[in-house]
TrEMBL record:
<keyword id="KW-0378">Hydrolase</keyword>
<dbReference type="InterPro" id="IPR042283">
    <property type="entry name" value="GpdQ_catalytic"/>
</dbReference>
<dbReference type="InterPro" id="IPR004843">
    <property type="entry name" value="Calcineurin-like_PHP"/>
</dbReference>
<dbReference type="InterPro" id="IPR026575">
    <property type="entry name" value="GpdQ/CpdA-like"/>
</dbReference>
<keyword id="KW-0479">Metal-binding</keyword>
<feature type="domain" description="Calcineurin-like phosphoesterase">
    <location>
        <begin position="7"/>
        <end position="204"/>
    </location>
</feature>
<protein>
    <submittedName>
        <fullName>Phosphodiesterase</fullName>
    </submittedName>
</protein>
<keyword id="KW-0408">Iron</keyword>
<comment type="similarity">
    <text>Belongs to the cyclic nucleotide phosphodiesterase class-III family.</text>
</comment>
<dbReference type="Pfam" id="PF00149">
    <property type="entry name" value="Metallophos"/>
</dbReference>
<dbReference type="InterPro" id="IPR050884">
    <property type="entry name" value="CNP_phosphodiesterase-III"/>
</dbReference>
<dbReference type="InterPro" id="IPR042281">
    <property type="entry name" value="GpdQ_beta-strand"/>
</dbReference>
<dbReference type="InterPro" id="IPR029052">
    <property type="entry name" value="Metallo-depent_PP-like"/>
</dbReference>
Length: 278
């Protein structure tokens, strides 16, 4: 295809039911509705949306019942993975028939592959029930190795909730990613992996990993405080909602842009009829 293929990434909606605000102060439903409206109105519009986990706040059926119709308002296909706030079975039931979820309902993790796009997407379920941190099992790593080997010339994005590295933000590092070193070695054997797309950290963060790059997406509502101390407490701020827009072109490669959602003045021109505005 000659035109670019656009993948919007959003993360960590943390939706609640009954109109409740997360942590008593965050209107996560309103924030997600604004994000959906923003993506739908974008020019050019993203071709697909990926959502990198923590879809709801407590993994309850009533929360997914609020989430599903909001995501259903997207005018483009969407793909999702669970985060540590999600419940696999409740998520599966809420999105029955969603193309990105495994057909095998007995599968222990919600890992999936999308092969029908210009960029191959592989979703990985990095959740560990009852834990804040995440990881990938040896079984998942073997499965991923096989999937990557199937199409060694297809540009591929790996989508998972937990970033497999230490951030420096103390409270987010207390449960390190399980099997991170083995995961990095595996990715390094497959140079067609263009990016790892992660959430969980509620901040835009990048890191080299296995010969490629990890892009961590900010949250759709609240952001983790940027506090690079080992003693950093678990605090957040109501900083602007953010997302990432990944632009793929077969000749130009993958470029990632950061975007924000909100009402800001502009746009204003740099030039008028006389040239650069003084």
């Amino acid at each position: 295809m000659s035109r670019p293929f656009l993948i919007a990434q959003i993360s960590d909606p943390h939706l609640k039911a009954g109109g409740k605000f997360s942590y008593g102060v965050v209107d996560t439903l309103g924030a997600l509705q604004r994000m959906v409206a923003h993506l739908n109105a974008s020019v050019p519009q993203p071709d697909v949306v990926v959502i990198s986990g923590d879809l709801v706040d407590f993994g309850r059926a009533d929360e997914y019942a609020v989430l599903a119709p909001v995501l259903g308002q997207l005018t483009m296909p969407f793909y999702l993975v669970p985060g540590n706030h999600d419940d696999r079975e409740q998520l599966r039931m809420a999105f029955t028939g969603q193309a990105c979820l495994p057909v095998d309902t007995t599968a222990p993790t919600l890992d999936w592959v999308e092969d029908a796009l210009p960029v191959r997407l592989i979703g990985l379920d990095s959740t560990i029930p009852g834990a804040h941190g995440g990881g990938l099992t040896h079984r998942q790593l073997a499965w991923l190795d096989q999937r990557l080997a199937e199409r060694p010339h297809s540009p591929t994005l790996l989508i998972l909730h937990h970033p497999p590295f230490i951030t420096g933000i103390g409270h987010m590092d207390r449960e390190p990613f399980a099997n991170a070193a083995a995961f990095e070695r595996l990715v390094g054997r497959h140079p067609h992996v263009e990016r790892l797309l992660c959430g969980h950290l509620h901040r835009p963060i990048q890191k080299r990993f296995g010969g490629t790059v990890i892009n961590v997406c900010p949250g759709t509502s609240h952001q983790v405080v940027l506090d690079l101390r080992e003693s950093a407490p678990a605090h957040f701020r109501l900083e602007p909602a953010g997302y990432l827009l990944h632009r793929w072109h077969p000749e130009e490669g993958l470029v990632t842009h950061g975007g924000v959602v909100g009402d800001y003045r502009g746009p204003f021109p740099f030039y008028d009829a006389r040239g650069l505005i003084d």
